[in-house]
Every structure is written in structure tokens, then in C-alpha cells.
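Late entry, iron/sulfur cluster complex.
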Amino acid sequence: MDMTESARPDGPQIRPPKKTTVGLPGIAHSVRYALEEMGPRRSLQTLLTMNHVKGFDCPSCAWPDPDPEHRRAAEFCENGAKAVAWEATRKRVDAAFFAVHSVAELRAQEDHWLEHHGRLTEPMHLAPGATHYKPISWDDAIALVADRLRGLDDPNRAVFYTSGRASNEAAFVYQLLARRLGTNNLPDCSNMCHESSGAALTETIGIGKGVVTLADIEDHAELIVIVGQNPGTNHPRMLTALEKAKRRGARVVAVNPLPEAAFGRFRNPQTPRGLLGPGTVLADSYLPVRVNGDLAFFAGVNKALLAREDAAPGTVLDRDFIEKYCDGFDAAADAWRVLEWPAIETMSGLSRTQIEDFAAHVVAAGSVIVCWAMGLTQHRNAVATIREIVNFLLLRGNVGRPGAGPSPIRGHSNVQGDRTMGIWEKMPDTFLDALREEFGFDPPREHGGDTVEAIRAMRKGKVDVFFALGGNFVAATPDTEATEAAMAHCALTVHVATKLNRSHLCHGAEALLLPCLGRTERDVQGGREQFVTVEDSMSMVHASRGTLLPGSDKLRSEIAIVTGLGHALFGDDVGWREMGSDYRVIRKHIEHVVPGFHAFEQRVSQPGGFMLPRGPHDSRTFKTATGKARFTVNPPSAVEVPPGHLLLQTVRSHDQFNTTVYGLDDRYRGIKGGRRVVFVNPDDLRERGLGDGDIVDVVGIAPDGERRAKAFRAVEYPTPRGCAAAYFPEANVLVPLDSVAEISNTPTSKSIVIRLERAG
Ligand code: SF4
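Prediction complete; structure with ligand written out below:
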């Protein structure tokens, strides 16, 4: 048998899940981790400037910062500290490292091992047929990429992928480069996370992002619903915001198949009360919805609200709001009236009583916010689910007033800003027209491919050059084996990166690694210190300035790499040189091209930055097809799971940020020293003749055949019957490339039909 970590005698140790978050253990872990990677001086230099006006933006999640006057000295969480330590580590992966380790050897290592070795220091080249990466000069590396791009038969044979770390300025010049070349092939990590949110919100309220502010959560909302989101691990400073809301009397309800520690007690490390006292219980109630049961749940809630209104007209729904600002109400109401409760209960896994009780709390609350994350977006019916959440909010006028609205919580620090800057394969003509006006060339109008489409194209040999601005493509994407094989079909793969990861080892015929500056590092161009900007989950745009000296004198900024490539390809046709040496020039272009960025330089230089306009929030303006907020009909549905099978969702551990694995523990869920675990309801295990601690293969079932993730340790866990969970990227191998959400094309990483087989 494969001796993976799960099968080893020292494989993961399991303890009961925690019911408390942060407190002294959170501080201890942050400090230990920072000191190990950075030492005391660098730790102070980074952690005390992170998320501060004159410092840099946390490279981890996109949670917003408080107003400058309310920021504390330590304005970060445990995961923010880990992200910074990971980037600002003193360890180096240099030419000597690559001389010792062949690509094949490196590929056999686990992801954590690869990234753990430190920062890349100079450009590296893997020649066709070579076994080892070797150093290459920047000039030669840029010339090589330019040469291959110039030689394409068709610009659509190039793909330009972006991770959510790229700054606004880097993203803007990057999309400019792709479009100047003649392609809209600009897939990004958003395709795999909040694409479903963007699709549903654009259709129903006319903007593809959330429309609440931090103050709405902290100061105004009376009910905050957290659905399919685990803030304790993925957006930890949200716990502070929830605590503030709780202390002024707001109600918090968690809807999730896993009873995450974040819904229990929060011991705020910033306050003596949090450290010395018992902490604050954040969730007033927890609803253990089935995996993929959220659409049925919200449909049930809407049905219950409508029934209350029918029983006492004019007391439940906000009729004035619906009449003035919305359309489609009658059709949606007719659909809710005929829904059958038994079907809702079966699909959601929640009883009618639980759903009606929740509806009663909604009616008692003057203002409601719904927050969500990947637990909702990575299902076949994800767009319908989010549309149903919009229905839920519209029913009581919970959009466009204090303390109310939809709030998709973004995972990577500038994933939202990158989309605003034009990183999208389907940017509207208004954006492309503005680009033409500004730069004097005609951008391509044919839509490009998203992430899944890019992999399919690679698989068919239709991609010659794959260029990634950050990220770990093969670890973030579904169907790991298919994606890795697809990469091998490219003639050239290029990765702009800070650290070595698996994607650099699943290469095309030829490959380049181009090491870039991190967020923590000073960026001097044209003899002048530069700053970049980012947009958080709540549409605040602000500056980010690194404070450390670069980890190597051969690192270049992402902007310098992209504008250097632009210059090599096109000469100075759109001013690549000037943009690369003075980021104010890029911001001036952004001001002219992207709506909402007037007086960009001046406004972003103010402490805290500025908020982008959002019509639904600011003035109840809805730029939809009808100019109104739209009720939609979303018949409840749920994945059909054959007898003997389970529905598995992929999740992150607490020692992980997206594809970056900082360590092998998941403290809050009680896992220590391993990641190949599958969380299953104890009765489901017993029914299969299995028990806690058994080693099983997780077998994914799909129309195109079975996929197998070997040797996972079964862990009894309080998730609803029929549900299971395992960490990604280890479980990505089970997600079929062709299993995607309707409309958004997001891989269905949260609804994988599996069976468990005792490992032989
Ligand atoms: S909440 Fe997110 S942005 Fe804030 S410090 Fe933590 S990881 Fe960074």
C-alpha cells in the first residue's frame, strides 16, 4: 500500500474539534511562526506595518481594514502573520538548489515541502528535454517569451492566467499586454471561486460584487447570516467585526455542513476581555445544512416569509421597495407557494421547523446581511443559490440601506481588484472601448477562455504559451491529473512567482520561472519608491507599500516584468517604459479607463483610500437588463447521491491559504500532523463497516469514470448524514474537469459524489 502520511504510524493525530477561536493559542502560533521564518527583526518590521496606512496590504485574504483612526498596532490575524512570514522568510531557493534537485525529484515532493524551502532568487530556465532548471538572465528570459509570443499563429494560442495577489497596477498592465497581443484569454482564480457570485449578482442587482461596508456589519446589521463560509480560518479578522456586531445586540446565524469553531467562542486577542475572559459566543444559532442544500434552504425561508405575509398582509414584506425598485416578484412568489415542504426538508437536510424559526428571526430583524464564500459558489446550482439569496434580501428591502445587503467574502487579497482592472475573459465592450480610446489600438472582442476552458484547450494542444502571473495553477484547478497532463501540451510555460510550487514542475516543453517582489518588499523604479493599490472585499481601494529590502537583487516587480515584456514585443507603442518606471502613469491610465477611479492618485494617497461607487448600495440604482433589482425563479435542486455514496466538499485547513500549505495542522478541527483525512458522520462510517482511524480510498464517481484519492484517514465528524469533507488540493483529483456550475463554469469542488473503500 501507498505509505502516505495517513497510513504511517505517525500519521495525523485527531482530537475533538475546538469550540473557541484565537485567544492565547492564536497569538502563540502567529509569533512562533513569524519568528521561525523571519526572525525577530523582520517580524517586527513586517507585522507592525501590515494593514497600516504607510505599510503593505496583507497578501492573504481580502477582508477590509478598519478606518485608519481605529487601527490597532497589530492589525492582523494568525493567517495574515503566516502569509507574511511565508513571503518574508529568510530561506532561499537559488541556483544551487536547482542544480541539486531535478524537476522529477522536486515533483515527487509534497506541496508543503516545495514552498517551505523559501524564496526564488533569480530567473530560471528549463530547456526542452532538460532535467534541471538553470539560471537565465532577465534579458534572455524576456526575449525568449517575446519570441515565442511573436511566433504564435494566432494570439489565442496564448493564455494569461492571474492569481488574486496581483496589484491593481500589475493587473491593469497585464490585461493590456494580453489585449495588445490580441487575445482575451485572461482566466483567473475568480473563475474558480466567486464567479458564481458575480454572475448571480450582476443579473439580479446589476453589479458583480458585494454591496455592504465594514460599518454595515459592525454597526448596523441586526441579523448577519454566514453561509458556506468559515471565517475563523479564511477571513479571521471578520471575527472581530462579528464580535462588535454581537456586543451591540446583533444576531448571527451560521448555516454550514460543518460546525466550525468560528461559530463558537471568540477570544479577541486585541482585548484583555478576550484574552482573560471567556470570550464572546459569535453564532446565536447554527443550522447544519446538507452539502449543496443551501438553495433549498433559502427557497424554504422565502416560502415561509411569503406565508407569513399572506397570513398578515403588509407586515412582513417591504411592499414599497418591491414595487418601486424590483421586478419579477409575482412569478417568484407563485413558485414559492407551490413548493412542497418535504422536498425542501430532504434537499436542505433541515426541518420545516428550523427553517420557519429562522424566518421568524428574519422578520424580527430590521436589517439583514448575508455573507458567503466557496461553500455556496462551487456547486452546479451555485448561481441559482445566490440568486435565491438576493430574492431573500429583496423581499424585505435588505439592499441599499444601512446594515443590509449581499456580501460575498473574497478569498485572495486583490482578487476583486483584478477583475475591476479588466482581468476577465469577457470584459464588456464599454471597457474595451475605453481601452481603445486610451491606447489607440483595437482590443479583441471575441471572448477568451476561462480557467476550465483554458485547461480544455491545453488538453487539445491548442495552447502554445501559458503565462501565469502568480498562483499555483495545477493545485488550484480541478482534476489534478488531467490538468497536469494538459500543461505538458504547451510549448512554453512561464510563471511569475515568489516561491517554488507544483505548477512550476508540471511544465510545457520549455519553462521559465520569473521571480518577483512580494508585497512586503520595497519597490524602487526609476529611482523612486513606488506603491501599488488593491481593492478589498468591500470595494475600498487603498495603497500598499512594502517595507523590506527585496529578498534578492535579481527580483523584479510584476509590473516591471509585464511592461518589460510589452516593450520587447511592441516597442514603446503604449508607453510601456514609462509605466514600468512610474506607477503613477499606470494609475492615470486606470483613471481614464476604469469607472469610479477619477482623481485616483489623489484619492488613493489619502489615509485609508476611497470606496468605489456601488449603485445598489449608494442609491438603490440597479444596472440590470430592466434597470430594476430582479426577483428570479430558482427551483430547488440538490445533487442526487446514489445509495451507499456521500457528497464530499473540499475545504481548507487552518494551516493553509488557498493552495499554500503552511503546515500540516488544522487546529480548530482537531487535526495534527497530516492532511490526508476525510471527515465523515460517525453513522455513515458505521453503516459502511468503517470506523474512526480506518484508512480508506476516496473514490469519486462521475459520468466519465471514477477517480481515486488514495489512503485517507477516516475521521468521525459532526457533519450531516450523507456528507463528507477533505482538504484541497489533495482532493482536487476527485473533481472532474467537466463538472461545473451552470452559467459561471466554476468547478463543482463542493459537491463531489464519492464512495469510501477500505484501502487494501
Ligand atoms: S483577516 Fe485576512 S487580510 Fe486580515 S490579516 Fe487576516 S488574512 Fe490578512
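The longest strand covers residues 705-716. Will revisit in the morning.
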